[in-house]
Write a structure and sequence with these properties.
By secondary structure, the protein is mostly helical. The chain is 60% helix and 11% strand. It has seven helices and five strands; from the N terminus they run βααβααβααβαβ. A three-stranded parallel sheet has the order 1-2-3. Strands 4-5 form a two-stranded parallel ribbon. Strand 4, helix 7 and strand 5 form a beta-alpha-beta unit. Helix 1 packs across helix 2, helix 1 packs across helix 3 and helix 5 packs across helix 6. The mean pLDDT is 95.
Length: 131
Amino acid sequence: MRGIDTNILVRFLTRDDEKQAKRAAEILTKECGPESPGFLTNIVVVELVWTLSRIYQYPRPQIVAAIRALLNSKELRFESPDELHAALEHFEEGRADFADYLIGSLAVKNGCEDTLTFDKKAAKLPFFSHA
């Protein structure tokens, strides 16, 4: 198993650099598989969502579709797949950043009743409370 960095996924999805996009596709389709999957940390997924949203201006439904496809891939393994799925569901229907939803999901997984925050917007999310 090998870790996959955000920039590999960005090149694969955006194809903004044809040479790197081709190499990214080779990595994800030929070097990763069910027996030897690529590994994605939570940070990589958060960076990917942020990059697609802020840098590439992808609309939320397109980002959700891309992340869902990655999560359903047999060629990839994730640090916290259940929490990523939960965060993605909230992100799909909500208005907050994906990172906030993942923070809340991870806190719940680890036994927290909520996540304290000074962020008034985040405090309105499930599993958050204003500090």
